[in-house]
Design brief:
The structure is a homodimer.
Chain A: E1 8-11, H1 20-35, H2 41-50, H3 52-60, H4 69-80, H5 93-100, H6 112-122, E2 124-129, H7 133-143, E3 151-152, H8 153-156, H9 163-172, E4 180-184, H10 187-195, E5 199-203, E6 225-227, H11 230-236
Parallel strand pairs in A: 1-2, 1-4, 2-3, 4-5, 5-6
Chain lengths: ~240, ~240
């Protein structure tokens, strides 16, 4: 294995570092029990998440100024409730706020903390997530994710896969894009990162979307590295 | 002592958390030995630092767009060399770059790491420094400063004491200013923070400017807290 000329690893977080679906299901269960008994909380989590990409696309295409993901998540939550027979006007605002913060309380995949800790010995490690700073901060503090800094959409004021999200992150790090490696479980994220000149590492997360997942099960390009988990990636990178 | 309704502590760094003067003196010694033997390296450090505030003032007053502190430090270094008889054109660029990175390698005051670690158990802790993200990141990684996130001028795109530096930091944290406490060894920083509604904690650093320091030896207002060091502040805040 060549010694990579990489100074920093930047990470997709939702799905790559943490299990967003399991966390949202867990937090939605008591909420749904109160407001829509019998609802499939996994279907609810998937429906909420399904509004994620379209809501950012409005920002990416200039339809509205940049707003942090907490704002989009809350709007998406209010929009998804009627799909499950819940009238948002009848749910107290503090319950909405509390459920919205579920995204701040997601659990890492089992290898994530140990893998990041190893990688951090050799590289700068930071999220390059669409999650906002406070969201990433709360998640890291709760789960013990050992980031060197919290970068991403809010620092770049741009949502992935917009090129600005990747390029401004490299600029903040004071590095040429080729000395930064994007680590993600999503081929689309790596396509965009590679187009910006970043190196790429694919970590397969075959149950991010549940047991019937059909997407991102294999690398769709010859990424610079591919690994079953972050501890294995650390080993490959000599960390 | 009341239990404070504070969620986050944000820190001035140069002088409050780290000993910038001692670090710059240490790193300047071999440089000056090569280029201007016999130069007083403390005088050199003070002269370099003396250009810090004026260079940011140009940005604060709209004289130029925001640029990160690494850029200002380098410009200030080139400007200060002739004061010590050194022609910047005769110094290799990589030596200039290396000396400029001295600001990334400053040592913390003896209480800083332990104090921050204690405070972090109870509060969000982050720099609110005029230093840029990569500078703060390198410093933290080298010294083991346990920040939850790296905030400050580059995230806010504004240099202290501009109100935007404080207010945008609170906004990024998702907190009203009154739930954020500015910790600084400089009365002027706390004046500006208080005007923005932040709580204030003064930590006295009587040798930041060397043994003959005459400024910031005492609190000049009744700050919410005052402490001889960060471990004592942690004790006062119940952390």
């Amino acid at each position: 294995m060549q010694t990579p000329d990489i100074q920093a690893l930047v990470f997709d977080v939702f799905g790559t570092v943490v299990d967003w679906r399991g966390g949202i299901v867990r937090e939605a269960v008591p909420f749904l029990r109160r407001h829509a008994p019998g609802t499939d909380s996994a279907a609810f989590a998937d429906a909420w998440r399904a509004r994620y990409a379209p809501s950012m696309e409005v920002v990416r295409t200039g339809g509205r100024p940049f707003v942090r993901l907490d704002v989009l998540h809350r709007e998406n939550l209010l929009a998804v409730l009627p799909q499950f027979g819940i009238d948002p006007a009848r749910v107290p605002a503090d319950e909405i706020d509390a459920l919205n913060l579920a995204w701040h309380r997601l659990d890492p995949w089992p290898d994530a903390v140990a893998g990041l800790a190893r990688l951090r010995q050799r590289f700068i490690v930071a999220p390059l997530s669409n999650g906002n700073i406070r969201l990433m901060l709360d998640m890291a503090k709760r789960a013990g994710l050992p980031w060197d800094a919290i970068l991403g959409a809010e620092v770049a004021q741009a949502y992935k896969p917009a090129p600005e999200a990747y390029l401004r992150t490299a600029e903040v790090l004071g590095l040429p894009p080729g000395q930064v490696c994007m680590v993600a479980a999503h081929n689309g994220d790596l396509v965009a990162a590679r187009q910006c000149g970043l190196r790429t590492a694919f970590v397969v997360r075959p149950t991010e979307h549940g047991p019937a997942q059909t997407t991102d099960l294999v690398p769709e390009q010859a990424w610079d590295w591919q690994a079953p988990d972050l501890e294995d990636l650390a080993r490959q990178l000599g960390a």
